[in-house]
Automatic annotation (TrEMBL):
Keywords associated with the record: Plasmid, Transferase
GO molecular function: transferase activity
Protein's name in the database: N-acetyl sugar amidotransferase
Domain of life: Bacteria
InterPro entries: N-acetyl_sugar_amidoTrfase (IPR020022), Rossmann-like_a/b/a_fold (IPR014729)
Classification of source organism: Bacteria, Pseudomonadati, Pseudomonadota, Betaproteobacteria, Burkholderiales
Length: 389
């Protein structure tokens, strides 16, 4: 039996006997560590069923919990210019969060991490939306030589974690802006309904500064003087000592991505940019070109399976989407030329990177076990309502 990845025209990774979930589209090629129960449900769907009631509140229950949370945020922010921080990228999730917090009368400061890869449309979306709903913006612009060096180091490390330099820095920036300004709440666009599937082999390192440092030590050449970062000890300090909380506000509402887009387009002049996270040129290229061609990873498996579990699309719609390329071939070639030039890589140098033997984060120093312990601890606190969802 062939896999969905093969249908999309990408090389197959060696796999065990092929099996696909009976509910979503995750299979033994997309996730080689996947397992199934006797009814053919994959471990991702079983995890979703187990956690959804603790992570996602719907209907009246969600409205009541959100109102109580909003009152806590307002009370904690009394006397300050802002009562919460939101991260903005120009994408649908973070933009909807900006609209939602204003609907509830909160006073957010928007924080944007400019890593040099914003699409023109993403930049316009940020400017247009924040101007329309009157939210102040703080933008952190990277030192390009440092950031380019770190991105190149991850490409040379040959792991599928090439987006970690951006994802880690965004987290660091939000935590440090909150602690330095005395703001107790960070409102995140992460949500369980459309982002619940997690496969460490697809991407790891969001909170692991030791892993990032080791990659840079081995493959980098420019000292990281200004790159935003945080350790697990700082994360504990921000939460325990300073009392800062990260809140996934979309877990308190009936978040539907297509309805959110309609609201943003019709009310705020926001414009759609296509695929998930395609507001960034590098993310579009990394997810749509590098990951599938080099690592055999197509994150649409996870994104579409999440939407199936959230009843926002049907399985047949997801299967039809997987028969298309991740994004148009002509745009992939444009991005290839643009990214190579911006990273100062010749065509041969980029080809050498694409053909280098594949490694994983386990090939480098890391803090995987402590990170998982911290993650499980926070999820346990959420279950018993000691930490916001």
């Amino acid at each position: 039996m062939t896999s969905l990845t093969e249908n999309a025209g990408y090389p197959l990774a060696p796999s065990k006997s092929y099996q696909v979930c009976t509910r979503c589209i995750m299979d033994t090629v997309a996730d080689q560590s996947i397992s199934f129960d006797d009814d053919g449900l994959c471990r991702h769907c079983l995890r979703y069923d187990k956690l959804v009631s603790a992570r996602h509140l719907r209907g009246d229950l969600g409205r009541d919990a959100l109102q109580a949370l909003v009152e806590c945020i307002k009370a904690a922010g009394q006397g300050r210019e802002y009562d919460c921080i939101i991260g903005v990228s120009g994408g649908v999730d973070s933009t909807y969060v900006a609209w939602l917090v204003k609907q509830h009368g909160l006073r957010p400061l928007a924080v944007h991490f400019d890593n040099g890869w914003n699409s023109e449309l993403a930049t316009k979306n940020i400017e247009r939306v924040l101007c329309n709903i009157k939210i102040d913006l703080h933008t952190h612009v990277v030192d390009w030589d440092e950031f380019r060096d770190l991105q190149l180091a991850f490409l040379k490390a040959s792991t599928p974690d090439g987006e970690i330099p951006t994802d880690h820095a965004i987290g660091a920036l939000l935590w440090k802006e909150a602690t330095s300004r005395g703001i107790k709440y960070i409102i995140s666009g992460m949500n369980f309904a459309t982002e619940s599937i997690s496969v460490p082999e697809w991407s790891y390192g969001h909170s692991d500064w030791r892993y990032i440092k080791d990659i840079h030590r081995r493959f980098g050449s420019v000292k990281l003087k200004t790159y935003p970062h945080f350790s697990l000890a700082y994360l504990c300090y921000a939460n325990v000592v300073r009392g800062v909380r990260m809140v996934s506000i979309l877990n308190y509402v009936d978040y539907n991505k297509e309805r959110a887009k309609e609201i943003l387009c019709n009310s705020l002049g926001w414009k759609d940019y296509g695929g998930k996270h395609h507001e960034s040129i590098y993310t579009r290229f990394y997810q749509g070109y590098v990951l599938p061609r080099k690592f055999g990873i197509d994150k649409r498996y996870g994104h579409l399976s999440d939407l199936i579990n959230a009843s926002q699309i049907s399985r047949s719609q997801a299967l039809a989407e997987m028969k298309r390329p991740p994004y148009p071939e002509d745009l992939q070639q444009q991005d290839l030329a643009y990214v190579s030039k911006k990273l100062r890589l010749s065509p041969q140098q980029f080809e050498d990177i694409m053909r280098a033997p594949i490694k994983s984060f386990r090939s480098y120093r890391n803090l995987y076990e402590p990170v998982q312990l911290l993650r499980n601890t926070v999820n346990g606190l959420r279950k018993y309502h000691f930490y916001p969802r």
